[in-house]
Design a protein that fits this description.
This protein has 263 residues and is an all-alpha fold. The protein has one domain: MetI-like fold. Helix content is 78%, strand content 0%. The chain has eleven helices and no strands. The protein starts with a helix and ends with a helix.
């Protein structure tokens, strides 16, 4: 019976792996097709579509624009999210549950509803569509994820370290900067990479709050309106490789930092 369960679980696992990775593999292969149309069989292969990604000035400008938005929105969300996490973790005050619930709300609201609400609110505040509006919306959406990750890390911080620092004469700010912040760095880094990828991949909020200059997901959507082509597959593959490389590096770096802070 146990052996049968293991076989069943293995079959389910490999079926899931195939379900996830086969579409990605097909997408990558279609970027090598020497034709303007998507479909099998691939009779001839070319690198032109992939080479074109790195020489297209408009595409590179859009990529830089998306990366800039992702970095700035991540910085804002990390600062705000860390501050809220420190405020909530280990403290009891009236309204704590309400503050925590409102903090997590942006992550629970469906994307399309959130984008419409941001668009209406931006117009009411007089914020013009463009980079500033997108950064604002992405940062608000990403704050809950920072709060959850940082609070989880804070819950494992040995209280004795803070008490020792206070006994040695450190005031609360010095104790926070010397003890708490270094301990939180792995969590902050992990949350930063997660927020960076979320912002880079965000389509709905970028579409509703963007101006004349599109982000990369919006540009791909605009290209899709004229039909699928190997060019779109090449662009998507390059974006996939970049995000996967960043994610793998962050995972390894975070694991190494966790070992260093928890010998």
């Amino acid at each position: 019976m146990r052996r049968g369960n293991r076989i069943l679980l293995s079959c389910i696992y490999w079926a899931f792996v195939l379900y996830v990775f086969v579409p990605l593999l097909l997408m990558i292969l279609m970027g090598f097709k020497d034709s303007k149309f998507i479909g099998f069989p691939i009779r001839s292969w070319t690198l032109d579509w992939y080479m074109g990604v790195f020489v297209d000035a408009e595409l590179l400008s859009t990529l830089g624009y998306s990366v800039t938005i992702a970095i700035l929105s991540t910085l804002i969300s990390v600062v705000v999210g860390t501050w809220i996490a420190v405020l909530l973790e280990g403290r009891k005050f009236i309204g704590r549950a309400a503050v925590f619930g409102l903090t997590l709300l942006p992550a629970l609201v469906p994307g399309i509803i959130s984008a419409i609400a941001f668009r209406i609110y931006a117009r009411w505040l007089g914020i013009e569509p463009g980079m500033g509006a997108i950064i604002w919306a992405h940062a608000v959406h990403n704050v809950p994820f920072v709060v959850l990750v940082v609070m989880a890390r804070l819950s494992t911080l040995p209280k004795s370290q803070i008490e020792a620092a206070r006994d040695l004469g450190a005031d609360p700010i010095i104790a926070f900067l010397r003890i708490t912040v270094p301990y939180l760095i792995p969590a902050i880094l992990g949350a930063s990479i997660f927020c960076l990828l979320l912002s880079f991949d965000d389509f709905v909020r970028s579409f509703f709050l963007g101006g004349y200059e599109p982000t990369l997901p919006v540009l791909i959507f605009a290209m899709l309106r004229s039909g699928m082509s190997p060019e779109i597959n090449a662009i998507a593959t390059v974006a996939l490789v970049l995000t996967a490389a960043i994610g793998i590096w962050a995972e390894r770096f975070t694991r190494r930092m966790n070992r260093d802070t928890n010998p």
